[in-house]
Design a protein that fits this description.
With 361 residues, this protein is α+β, with helices and mostly antiparallel strands. The protein has two domains: 152 residues, Helix Hairpins (Orthogonal Bundle), CATH 1.10.287; 142 residues, endopeptidase domain like (from Nostoc punctiforme) (endopeptidase fold (from Nostoc punctiforme)). 61% of the residues lie in helices and 7% in strands. It has a six-stranded antiparallel beta sheet with strand order 1-6-2-3-4-5. A hairpin with a 5-residue loop joins β2 and β3. α8 packs across α9. It starts with a helix and ends with a strand.
Length: 361
């Protein structure tokens, strides 16, 4: 067979991408594209969060931030107490060290005197004395000196024990202070994290809704009452003709009225800004009554009051974790510091879930 004939009978070499292969690949590509389109369509089918859902998220983050704020306030109060006590212990240790040094110096003087006298035994002193009477007089003086030395030794030992006790207490208080400061940093981080989340969600809201949330507006907020009340109560009469039960309660309420419009700043106790428990603490402080710093300690102040027995000046608490508080002013309303961006304002107590009430005095 010639080379030409052999060439004619040789089967043509197939290319990896034959028309059949191309058709198959194209079909697979189309199917993949269709699948991707369907999958993409499914992924994009979920509707974006509604304005109501976004506002609910913001409210939740603000509540969580307020819970962390109250924990921060509590840790800050404990750290302040520990620091003050530590300073007191350090002062006491310094004074005790001075007394200890004085006792040590007194012992040194006695030891020096004894060394100079040579510590002669009584029999030798008797021999060297010019008369028995002189010896007895010297012996009496020696006994007195020995007695004073014993007193000095006991004083030194007592002062040394006290200094050791104070220094041990100071070390324990220092360890507690460091623990409180670490807790303070953790709570501060938690607050800032929740507020950052709230700001991110706020940025997704329409401008009008965002402004309403930042002002603290909510369903049922009474703006007319806020504007009318800015001048404060007249002649002790509050909203809807309510009367403060005591002069101190009236002064606390008057302070709360004077704070209307001031900004919320977490951790603040006035006079330029407040958080919720900072406002109630400052209001009652103006009335001469000292309240604890946090919501969960303020609720145990004075005596508990039922919702139906509320009177102006009472502390009203909200949410299951006792994380928010306002000052009752009558007419079913409170003055409170809502959250960052929302000024101190009047709001109905029905705006939040009621958790309890207390009357400081």
């Amino acid at each position: 067979m010639t080379a030409g004939v052999a060439a004619a009978h040789r089967k043509p070499r197939q290319h990896p991408l034959t028309s059949s292969t191309v058709r198959t690949a194209a079909g697979l590509a189309l199917a993949g594209a269709a699948t991707a389109t369907v999958a993409g369509g499914t992924a994009q089918a979920a509707p974006p969060p509604s304005t109501t859902q976004l506002r609910a998220q913001v409210d939740r983050y603000y509540r969580e931030a307020e819970e962390a704020t109250e924990r921060y306030n509590g840790a800050k109060e404990k750290a302040g107490e520990a620091e003050a006590e530590l300073e007191g212990l350090r002062d006491r240790a310094a004074r005790g060290t001075e007394r200890l040094n004085a006792a040590r110096n007194a012992l040194g003087s006695y030891a020096t005197a004894q060394y100079r006298e040579g510590g002669m035994p009584a029999s030798v002193q008797l021999i060297l004395s010019s008369s028995p009477g002189q010896y007895l007089e010297r012996a009496s003086l020696a006994d007195q000196a020995g007695s004073r030395q014993a007193v000095a030794v006991r004083r030194y030992e007592r002062e040394a024990r006290e200094v050791r006790r104070i220094r041990t207490a100071a070390e324990a208080r220092l360890a507690e202070l460091k623990e409180n400061q670490a807790d303070l940093a953790r709570q501060k981080h938690a607050v800032e994290g929740k507020l950052a989340q709230a700001r991110r969600v706020l940025a997704e809201l329409p401008e009008e809704e965002r402004a309403a949330v930042e002002r603290g507006d909510a369903a049922g907020a009474v703006h007319g009452a806020v504007r009318a009340a800015r001048s404060g109560p007249r002649d002790g009469e509050l909203l809807d003709g309510a009367q403060a039960p005591t002069e101190r309660a009236a002064r606390a309420v008057a302070f709360a009225y004077s704070a209307l419009g001031k900004p919320y700043v977490w951790g603040a106790t006035g006079p330029a800004a407040f958080d919720c428990s900072g406002l109630t603490q400052a209001a009652w402080q103006a009335a001469g009554v000292s309240l604890p710093r946090t919501t969960y300690t303020q609720i145990n102040t004075g005596r508990r009051i039922s919702r139906g027995a509320l009177a102006p000046g009472d502390l009203v608490f909200f949410y299951s974790g006792i994380s928010h508080v306002g000052l009752y002013v009558g007419g079913g309303k409170i003055i409170h510091a809502p959250h960052p961006g929302a000024p101190v304002r009047i709001a109905p107590i029905d705006e939040m879930p009621f958790a309890g009430a207390a009357r400081p005095v």
